[in-house]
Amino acid sequence: MDVMALGAAMALLVFVLAFALAFAGPATGTQIRTRLQGVLSGAGPQGGNVSAVDPLRRSRPAGSMLQNIASGAWLSGLERELRLADSQLQPGDLITMRVALAGAGFVVTYLAATSMLGTMFGVIAALIVGIVGFQLPQMWLNHRKNQRSSKLEKQLPDTLTFIANSLKAGFGLLQAMSMAADQMEHPISTELSITVHETNVGSSMEEAFTNLSERCQNYDLDLVVTAILIQRSAGGNLAEILENVTETMRERARIKAEIVTLTAQQSLTGIVIALLPVGVGAMFLVISPEYISLLFTETMGRVMLGISVVMETIGIIVIKRILAIEV
To answer: How many structural domains compose the chain?
Structure first.
């Protein structure tokens, strides 16, 4: 048991070091990208000149140790996910956090559950908690990505309206996008600025807009990029096209809001049903611990407890799938 306690302490130490490395380290991905954009535009982070190159040279390499054990494509995909989440972490930081959380969760749960459930079920519980701990940083990353994508979707209609009105006033597309980038907030302003900058340094319009679509990975923005590229090849009134796309987006947003309203009761019902067994079990632990302790001390009770957890998980997944209506 002393060895296991030492292992738990080491896992917690790695966990703390991982977070310290992730959040208190030197210049990270987002900071480097900000400085690099300043360098490319001829100004430093504080509006200076290309002296911002020096901090770039002193920054950590993006891949560090992972470069030796993972392919470049995999690292590029992970870096893209971190960028879509507006995260300052690097791929190595994220992997370190996932491994540390998995190890800490496994060791601590094993020590706590073995005395109550026995060795076999203690290992199973520790494995489950370890897997959950490994997935927690990814879940956080997905949440940040969804937040950014949702904000970008909300900004798109107003941005397209601004660009369409600028086109009607006689400005070119790039000029209209540049003005929209100055008026709007992040993330749409950042993405439009990058697209305009790519065309200024020699990229074609088609390539710049394709890169915009690949960077954002947003369905509504894909509609805009497709409409602009078709207009450039087939011709037409771009301002009118953008207005039609904007109207389509607003209608989709209205339908989504109606769906959320109509399914709110079902969503709440699913949450209540999922929490009901947990609440009842906690109540019996307080009122009559001897009555419910059979679930943890008897083999049949442990089997029933495991089956109930599996069925509960399946039920939650099924309810989420039913309520996930595509528009």
So the answer is: 3
- pLDDT category, 15, cuts 50, 70, 90? low
CA–CA gap between residue 197 and residue 203 (Å, rounded): 9
User: What's the distance, CA 283 to chain centroid?
Assistant: 36
Residue 50 is classified by DSSP as G
Query: Cα–Cα distance between 8 and 2 in angstroms, integer?
Result: 10
Cβ-based neighbour number of residue 256 at 10 Å: 14
Given 215, 231, 261, the domain boundary residue is: 261
Burial 54-88 (b: 16+ CB within 10 A, else e): ebeeebeebbeebeeeeeeeebeebbebbebbebb
| pTM, two decimal places | 0.66
Q: Show which of 261, 292, 315 is a domain's final residue.
A: 261
| Whether residue 285 has pLDDT greater than 90 | no
Are residue 162 and residue 245 in the same domain, yes or no? yes
Give the residue with greater pLDDT, 183 vs 11.
183
Domain that holds residue 90: 2-148
| Alpha-carbon Rg for the chain in angstroms | 26
